[in-house]
Amino acid sequence: MSSNNLYVMGENVNNLKKNISYNFIYQLLILFLPFVTAPYLSRVIGANGIGIYSYTHSIGVYFTYFIMLGLNNHGNRTIATFQLDREKRSRAFFEIYTLQLICSLFFISLYIYYIFYISTNQKAAILQGVFVLSALFDINWFFFGMEKFRITVTRNAIVKILTVVAIFVLVKKKYRYLLIYIYYGSWVFS
């Protein structure tokens, strides 16, 4: 084995260790923050506010699942395959994102139908629409395929921390439960 191959292997091992570290820290953050916010939100907005949020959010989650069905894994794997070939990677990105765009427009249209003809709480469903809409812009699969974990983890961590600060500053009364939708919606944008 030449010294160049050993250098590349060593660099790959270092990148792998860094990516695992970033992912581990991010997962800890995701687990820890709800322990900080959940008791406060439960006290301020009450069981009814939490229930409304949980119900409408679960429906929004299904719509985002349908939008992103298989795209994350496929996109991640495809981008990783063409990581070193910019032209093929760009073509693959636009093909995958076009599919994501088509799926997003279709399922967002269905969600709009749900809001106006099926939902029992239109205000909450509209606010959850931010969550559903965010799937249109979710290209984390690209960064993961490029092994740019630092970018996504740093961005996501900053958004989550700022959102927690916003909860403690902005959510003071029960009628502010609508801000919770913004809070949890921002978790998706990160």
How would you describe the overall organization of this protein?
Helices cover 85% and strands 0% of the residues. It is an all-alpha fold and 190 residues long. The protein is flat, with a radius of gyration of 20 Å. 23% of the residues are buried. Residues 3-9 have low confidence and may be disordered.
What's the layout of helices and strands?
Blueprint: H1 3-68, H2 71-81, H3 86-117, H4 122-134, H5 140-145, H6 149-170, H7 178-189
Helix pairs in contact: 1-3, 1-4, 1-6, 2-3, 3-4, 4-7, 6-7
Termini separation? 42 Å
Q: How large a portion of the residues is in β-strands, by DSSP E?
A: under 5%
Contiguous runs where pLDDT drops below 50 for at least 5 residues: 3-9
Radius of gyration: 20 Å
Secondary structure tally: strands: 0
Summarize the structure.
By secondary structure, the protein is mostly helical. 85% of the residues lie in helices and 0% in strands. The termini are far apart.
Identify the notable features of this structure and list them briefly.
190 residues, mainly alpha, 7 helices, 0% strand, flat
